[in-house]
Design goal:
The structure is a single chain. The protein has helices at about 5-15, 20, 25-40, 40-45, 70-80, 100-150, 155-170, 180-185, 195-200, 205-210, 215-270, 305-310, 365-375, 375-415, 425-430, 435-445, 455-485; strands at about 55-65, 85-95, 290-300, 325-340, 345-360. It is of the alpha+beta class. It has two domains: about 5-95 and about 290-485, no CATH class; about 120-260, no CATH class. It has a five-stranded antiparallel beta sheet with strand order 1-5-4-3-2, sandwiched between helices. Helix 6 (about 100-150) packs across helix 7.
């Protein structure tokens, strides 16, 4: 899905809540739309037409005044009227021949270069993680031989010791060249020395064997050397194993840190990219710019207060809505301006069309709207860095968890020993404690909503009242702006309830 524009927000609302906000002429049109919606959501969005509770339009044209005050006056007023105001759309495009186009392009390129530098580092670190895990597997296999050799089970201990002897001959003794045990047995006809070495577990065992003195003189220092190597090498491998595991955890944390560093640059580079708009106002050699903004104000509908105010029957007081409902006002700004350089920044004068529309949406519909809006160019850019880190870490997660589990358990054990009332800011920074519960909540929160269930009878009543409130709020924002700026307006009083 490409970048969302101001026209798409109303279409999305109509598609998410067709029973309440889809404009259709006949029942057959509605049935056809529902079928398309089930087969391909975005195809249905293209054909959708919103039916708001109320709609008002304001056009302001002034090349001598900037456009920012129009937006910020409405934004500040909505912040006083609504519990929350979210920005849904922020797109812009400049004429290719304008200075604004060139400057924005340079800034976007700079952000892209910084992002790519970090992304290259991330790629190197992912490869490093794979190599570290491979090394840890090798260490683990080697340590398993030592553990087997120390086993109380005689058969297991014998197998482990034979494995260590083979490793010693292949990696340590082989460096003697023609003096190694393998070469002595092969080239110098010391046919018994290899088997004797594999049987002997101490120097005393060699002395007790029925061998000639020449073989014993060669074998005794080799067995003593092997026993010393076994003791020292086990300590060294365990030490390197612990160091590698700590390094693995460090690299994972570093990789996540670089991911956080890359995201702002990627986000800025996408935000500075100009959107592909087929707007006739964008003439190649003109010095013009088109800007699209959409903000959504939301107020929670108070179901029980409506019963107290006798807007709903008293018989509803013992019931509880499964979903909350919201009075929403969507304000779309479509600017057509002339960029004017003022110092290091630009000011924009020109024409703005402001469209005010009211809707009533439940919590599931608002969540679905947020999820659909997230499927845009910006979200794709964020998924790029996530793909290089989160996806890679997900595939390595089993190995990473396996090798860092003991370290994490040790850290948790140390934390338990400390005073419970002593809050460690560094542990809090790392997010230790309660993290699994937060992940479960986030996972549940991020689950995609594919379909919203129809309203029940009580919910339909709540939606009507929420829409009525939204209608009043929509007209209030529109009418008060006009009155505050000395424009012709309705001579009647308004009521936001």
């Amino acid at each position: 899905m490409a970048a969302i524009n101001t026209d798409d927000v109303g279409k999305l609302i109509a598609s998410i809540s067709p029973s309440a906000h889809l404009s259709y002429e006949t029942r057959s049109d509605f049935s056809k739309f529902k079928k398309t919606l089930k087969d391909d959501f975005w195809e249905a969005v293209e054909d959708a037409k919103a039916k708001p509770g109320e709609e008002h339009k304001l056009v302001y044209d002034s090349t001598s005044e900037t456009l920012e005050p129009v937006y910020f006056w409405i934004l500040d007023f909505m912040n006083n009227v609504f519990k929350s105001v979210d920005k849904l759309v922020d797109n812009f495009a400049s004429s290719p021949g304008s200075g604004h186009f060139a400057e924005m392009g340079q800034r976007a390129t700079r952000m892209q270069e910084e992002a790519m530098k970090i992304m290259q580092t991330i790629g190197v670190m992912v490869k490093s993680l794979v190599q570290i895990i491979y090394d840890l597997r090798e260490f683990e296999m080697r340590l398993s031989q030592y553990n087997s050799a120390d086993s109380k089970d005689k058969a297991v201990a014998e197998a482990g010791l034979l494995g260590l002897k083979q490793i010693w001959m292949d990696n340590v003794d082989i460096k003697r060249g023609r003096g190694s045990i393998n070469m002595l047995a092969q080239d110098l006809q010391f046919v018994t020395i290899r088997d004797a070495f594999m049987i002997a577990n101490s120097v005393e065992d060699v002395k007790k064997m029925d061998l000639n003195d020449r073989v014993k003189r060669l074998l005794e220092p080799r067995v003593a050397e092997f026993l010393k190597w076994r003791e020292i090498s086990e300590k060294e491998i365990k030490k390197r194993y612990d160091i590698e595991r700590a390094y693995l955890k460090n690299q994972v944390a570093s990789l996540q840190m670089y991911t956080r560093w890359a995201k702002p640059y990627l986000k800025a580079s996408v935000q500075l990219q100009q959107k592909d708009m087929k707007n006739p106002a964008l003439v190649n050699v003109f010095d013009t710019m088109v800007l699209q903004l959409s903000i959504l104000g939301k107020n929670k509908f108070d179901f029980f207060q409506s019963i107290i105010d006798k807007k709903l029957p008293q018989s509803f007081k013992n019931t509880k809505l499964k979903r909350g409902y919201n009075s929403c006002v969507l304000v779309d700004f479509n600017f057509r301006g002339i960029p004017q350089k003022v110092g290091q920044h630009y000011a924009f004068g020109g024409r703005v069309e402001v469209v005010f529309r009211s809707f009533a949406l439940n919590d599931e519909e608002l969540k679905m709207l947020d999820q659909k809006l997230a499927k845009s160019d910006l979200n794709d850019a964020m998924q790029l860095v996530e793909g290089m880190t989160s996806d890679s870490l997900e595939k390595l997660k089993e190995d990473i968890d396996y090798f860092t589990k003991e370290l994490d358990e040790r850290a948790i054990e140390e934390k338990k020993k400390s005073d419970d009332n002593d809050i460690n800011p560094f542990m809090a920074l790392l997010g230790l404690g309660g993290r699994s519960e937060e992940k479960k909540k986030d996972k549940k929160k991020d689950e995609d909503i594919t379909e919203v269930k129809p309203d029940s009878y009580m919910e339909s009543m709540a939606r009507k009242l929420a829409l009525s409130s939204a209608n009043g709020l929509c007209f209030a924002v529109y009418d008060i702006y006009k009155k505050a700026h000395g424009m012709a307006s309705y001579p009647v009083e308004w009521n936001i309830d």
